[in-house]
Structures are given as structure tokens and as C-alpha cells.
Amino acid sequence: MPESRVTTRLSPDDNDPLSIHPPIFETSEERAARLASEQHAKEVSDNIDEELEQQRVLEGKGPKPIKILLLGQSESGKSTTLKNFQLMYDPKAFREERASWRAVIQLNIVQSIRTILLALARLETVQSQHTSSSSSLSPKRSHPLLSPELLTIKSRLQPLADVEQNLVRRLTGSGDGSSQRSGYGVTSDTTSTKGALKEIAINAAIPWKNAFSRLRKSEERSSQDDSDGIDWEDPDDPWPILNTCAPDMIALWNNPNIKQLLVRQNLRIEDLSGYFLDSLERLTAPRYVPTDDDILHARLKTLGVSEYIFKISTSGTVRDWKVYDVGGHRSQRGMALSC
Description:
By secondary structure, the protein is an alpha/beta fold. It is built from twelve helices and nine strands. This is Guanine nucleotide-binding protein alpha-4 subunit.
């Protein structure tokens, strides 16, 4: 009787879906199920290939897209221009991002107030050094800008440091905004600003808004309002602390000594966050929802290149407009060549 030849087969416990041979102990029922699954996977793959081919053909027949490249240094208004494009030509998607921009606005407020608190701390340090170097016989005088009221407010606003860390963690997926890849696939970075806090930067290639939406679209919560996408019962939402600190933040920002201090330390906070600091009562109120103007004023530094596609009708023809937002840092300008 001729000896049967045995071909190389998988072991019974091999679950590699890319293996060529079926399991050696496969039953007829298992074989039928496997073949049906393979046929379904092939149909799905063929449908995707067909859709891609149809899209390629349509793009070849239709008008070529108009490409717009937004270039400029940091703080030149590129992101504001892009948000205006979104508001005009994709308002639904623009307003669906309110929850994400709400966190950015809260971070802008907290970092601006903490920058003022750091300015007060630096003045205290200078005053302390001056006092220690003075003769013990000289009367000790406090700096005219360091009023007892401001020092009391400074002490009561210390919880904002924890609020900032919480917001950075939620927006970047990290604890401190340092350069790292988070569990949400968001990369963050920090850059030093003279006399101010480090600025958070998000990798534009990663959908950070989607990463934030994972926090607000949890299936375990039923308190989310579909009209604005904000989970009002989120235990990590910082609005209770911001609402409690609002009177002190307003008093701090409106104090004339603070205005003089910012001028002396060359801190132009009013140019960057004056819009928010002038509306603290509204922005820290319970169930605050950002307006379109609030989102347009929100600041969040991005790294890399972002691509946005808008369908705009011109002369009766609908064409795709591709807008590219390139980071303003000098090291990122070379990325514009790839657009």
C-alpha cells in the first residue's frame, strides 16, 4: 500500500487569519463557516475597490479642486481664517465641535489667569529679594502694586493649576502636555513663551477633536444633550471650579494694579485673551455653550499640516476647495512643499 504524503498544515491552535492552509482538524461545519466568512470578506473588499475606482473616475471627469495654502507666522490669523471657512461652508460640522472648543476656551481662560498669577509671584520674589538686601534698620515696605486684596485673590485662585492640568490631559491625552503620543493618538508639545506659561500644541495630523469626543460620547452616560454634544454631568468638567473662582478672576482682571503690572512685565494678555477675560461671567456660567464668536476667538496651537475639504458653488458649478493650514513655526514651513 503506497505511503500517503502529508503536506505541511497548521497546528489545531493556530488562529492566524493569513495562513494558507485550514486547520488540520477542521470539521465540515467549520469549513463551511470559514468559506462563507472568506467569501463575505472578499465581497466587502471588492466593493471597497469598486467604490474607490468609481471615485477616481469621477474625480478625473469633474473639475479639478481648488487648493488654498494658508501660510504665515504664529498668531497671524491662519486658524481664524480656516474657522471662518468652516462656519460659512460647513456650519453643521463647525457647530458639532462645540464640546471640544469649549474645553479649549476654558484652557485659554485658565492659562491667561495663571499668567497673571505668575506675574504677581515674580513681583513677590523681587520684593522679597529687595527686602532681604535692605538694611535691617530700614522700614519694610511692600510694593505698591502688591495690595493685600491681590495677594488674597492670588491665594484663592490656586485651584486653577489643577484645572489647567485636567484640561491639558483631556485635550492631549497626557498629564502635562509634554511631547508624547497619548492613548487617544494625539501628540502634544509645549513651547516656552517669555513671561508666560508654556503653550500647548496639538499635532494637526491627528483628529484631536475626535479624541475629545470619545470622552463625551461614552455609552455609559445618558446626560449628553444632542443639541450641543456636551455631557453636563461629566465629573471631570472643570466648570464648577471655574464658576466658583469667577468673582476672583473678574476682580483680578479688572484691578488697575494688574493693568500696570502687565505693562511693566510686557505681557499683552489683552491682545490674546482679552475677549474671554472681558466675558468671564458668561463663560463660567453653568451650562455654558460656546457661541460662534467664542470659537473664532479660541486659540490652540497646531503642529504640522491640516487639510480641510469644502464643497463651494462658483458660477453654478460645485467644486472641491482644499484648504491647507500649515503650522506657523519656522521648522514646519517646509511641510508646505508637500501640499
